[in-house]
Structure formats: C-alpha cells, structure tokens
Amino acid sequence: MMGAVFAEYREARPPAAAIARDPALWRRLDELGLVRLTGAEESGGSGAGWFEAAELLTAAARNAVRIPLAEHDLLACWLLDANGMPGDAAVRTVCLLDDDATARGVPWAADSDRVVVVWHDGDEHRVADVERAALDIAAGVNLIGEPRDTVTADVTALDGVPIGADLVAQLQMKAAVVRAIQVCAALDETALRSIEHAGSRVQFGRTLSRFQAVQHSIADLTAEAALARAATESALTAAVGSDWTAPNLPFRIAVARSCVGHAASVVVRNAHQVHGAIGTTIEHRLHEFTRAALAWRSEFGSVRHWDEQVTDATLAAGADVWRLITD
C-alpha cells in the first residue's frame, strides 16, 4: 500500500529542481494514518513502530518522493511526546541550535508550520515548540533540491522547558538512522536499475550484462548496497530491541553510517558507469537516486564524522572490541 501510494503520485509528476511539501499528498497520507505512523493511538497516531516507519521511508525514497515524514513523525513529534508536551495537527520539523542560536541545514523548516527547537542552556538543554513565523529562517536546499534551511532563534524569547540529555542523545541517534535508511533505499533502487539496464541494453550484438567488466561493476555495487543495508538493519534492530538504550548503540549507528557513506561512493560511481551517458541526463531517473544518496549521506553527520566515531569507539574499547560488536 505504501509503495502504491508513492508510485502513483510520482508517476504523474516530473522531477523538480526545487521541492516543496505537497499539501494534497500530505492530506492523503494523513487520511491513511501514515503522517503520524508511530504516534500513540490515543493521541491520533497509528501506534506503529520503527520497523514500519523504515518501510514507509524506504517506499518514499525508492519512488523519489520528497516529503518530511521522518522529520515530522520520528523526530519532532516523537520529541514532544517523549517530553510530555502537547502537539496538534501542524506539520513539524526539528532543529538543534548551536552556541550562536543558529541551526544550519534544517530539513523542511520553511515548509513546516512549527519547528521543535532544542538548545543548550547552561548545564541543561531546553526545548520549545515554535511557530515558524517566530523564527528567522533563511531558505536553502541540498543536492536534490530538498529544503535545508538556516534557522536562527532568540532563545530568550522562547517558552522552553527542560529536556533530558538522554532524549537529546536519542534525537541525534534517530536522525542519523533516518538518513541511513533513506540512503539504503536509494542505493537499492540504484542497484536494481543498474541490473535492469545491463540486462536490456544491447551493445556490440549482446547485452551489457554479458560483458565481464560490467558484471564486475554490478557485483561491486550490489555488494556495497547489501553491506550498507545489513549494517543499518543491525543498528535499527539493536535500537528497537533496547528502546534506543543499548550501551553499544552509538557504535552500531556509527558503523552503519560509515558503511552507508562509503557504499554510496561505489554504488553511484559504478551505476553511472554502467548506464553511460544516458544516466547523466535529466530525463533518466537514475540521478533521482544517486544524487539523493550523496546528499543524504552527509546529513546529520558527515562520512568523516562517522568514521572518526567508529575509530574512537574501537580504540577506547581496547582489547574488548569483540564485546563492543556483539553486545
């Protein structure tokens, strides 16, 4: 059902240079109970979990539908619920301000009704559910045209409430996992399209899939996509099984994001080599997935950041690296 909804929507619309949230699609998803998929039923949600949410994000990404489902449901609204703050039907995103009261690359801020703002205040963090008009928002976009805005707030004017450090840490981990899931979906779709293209494109009297060099390229990209998904699913399973409290969860997430980031390089490069010139055209849909993978892999932490997290955790574990991996 998820895939059918997104496929129907996407087939009727060409790719756009700049992307905005479509109110009609949002209403339809709301009617189907997908906008607050993981929200509690007593508060109007569907009562599903992260595994179902991962399928929803995957379906959207594999159909190149850009919409702030993760930011709204899994991040902003979850944070309000976890901190005992009331919500409503407004569309939300979330941002974590730096010491200058500014957050950069905030997804969908200019397209949301409200922004859940988190900032550091002395020895604690505070959170406020803020109307978009009360914030200074400078519009921006990422590599695929999704809104990635700069948000500046006057925190002294915000009616914030204290938030536990554990929730802030969970927010950061959940945001990292969201992007890993989306990149994996884009890589899987890229791999599938590469296999289909190689099997149907005839060159020098035979299909591309009969050439050994092409076979090697596809083998490499599918292996990297599978590795990225395995690492991401391992991190997600550990997160859900421990309610995001497993001692080695930050390490597992760092491993997933590192694998995802490096896999994106190989998959994108090989896929475009397999497709040749046609894969670089705006009319061909390959770029909708390859550019998405490259854009998303650097959000909520760069590849270098996650590599360093893996290295630091491994060195800190010393001779007990096996426990770090298996616990």
From TrEMBL:
Domain Acyl-CoA dehydrogenase/oxidase C-terminal: 180-297
UniProt protein name: Acyl-CoA dehydrogenase
Similarity comment: Belongs to the acyl-CoA dehydrogenase family.
InterPro entries on file: AcylCo_DH-like_C (IPR036250), AcylCo_DH/oxidase_C (IPR009075), AcylCoA_DH/ox_N (IPR013786), AcylCoA_DH/ox_N_sf (IPR037069), AcylCoA_DH/oxidase_NM_dom_sf (IPR009100)
GO terms, molecular function: acyl-CoA dehydrogenase activity; flavin adenine dinucleotide binding
Keyword Nucleotide-binding: no
Cofactor(s) needed for function: FAD
Domain of life: Bacteria
Lineage: Bacteria, Bacillati, Actinomycetota, Actinomycetes, Mycobacteriales
Natural source organism: Mycolicibacterium holsaticum
Keywords from the named record: FAD, Flavoprotein, Oxidoreductase
Family matches, as Gene3D superfamilies: Acyl-CoA dehydrogenase/oxidase, N-terminal domain, Butyryl-CoA Dehydrogenase, subunit A, domain 3
Pfam families to which the protein is assigned, alphabetical: Acyl-CoA_dh_1, Acyl-CoA_dh_N
Keyword Protease among UniProt keywords: no
Residues covered by the Acyl-CoA dehydrogenase/oxidase N-terminal domain: 22-84
